[in-house]
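Reviewers of the previous submission asked for a worked example of the structure-prediction workflow described in the proposal, so we include one complete record here. The input consisted solely of the amino acid sequence. No template or homolog information was supplied to the procedure at any stage.
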Amino acid sequence: MIMGGVTAAVVYELIVKRQGTPGAYLTGFGVLIPAVLACPFFIISALDIRCMPHRLALFSFPGTVAFRISEAMFGFAPPAAKKSMKNYVTYYASLMEATFDPKTEEPVRATSTDMIHLILDFLPSALILTMLFSLASPWGYAPNVTSADAHSMDHTLGEIFSAGHLMNNFIAAALLSFSLSFGSKGVSLLFCLLTGVRTQRMVDNPMFASTSPSDFWGRRWNTLIHGALKVSFVSNVG
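From that input alone, the workflow returned the following structure tokens.
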């Protein structure tokens, strides 16, 4: 969040306040986006980070930041976020999108009820995820025996569609879904506790509550990236 806040202040001063000028585009495309995308490689190398979840976490933030720099350059950042430096830092600082009041264009404060709901939502997710990893770990997260190595890419077509292989993939997908849900709830809870600002839900039970592929991708699975892609690319093309 600190890194996001610092980046937000720079983007606000150099791009948002100079939106549409050649300098804003040069700063965004020529300096900020390359620097942000290169940052994880530098951190991983400097700190010798070998843990894969930590590496993935480092790479998730720059992608979102790059999208938000793009929306700042092309003017698609929410009007409420652009109202002031404070609002823009609030909008930018977390991986979870802050909620703004459409009338006042100010961040919506999280109530004690919101906090309780977040905690009650987070704790079961932590328990479920811990249980799933504990159960799947002894079998290398692939409990079903298959004719080919479950973690190999060298499969025949028949092996790919075998019942055991499909079940192993389902388990892996469920673990990923629960991990993303757990992580997003944890970040939302932390952001609310530190800032007192309400955030929007990023993952909404995509595997088991989706009614269609569009519902899965557009409304339930990683809505932050969906929204960033929509405003950064689709709106620009339109």
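The mean pLDDT is 81. We consider this example representative of the routine output the project will generate in years two and three.
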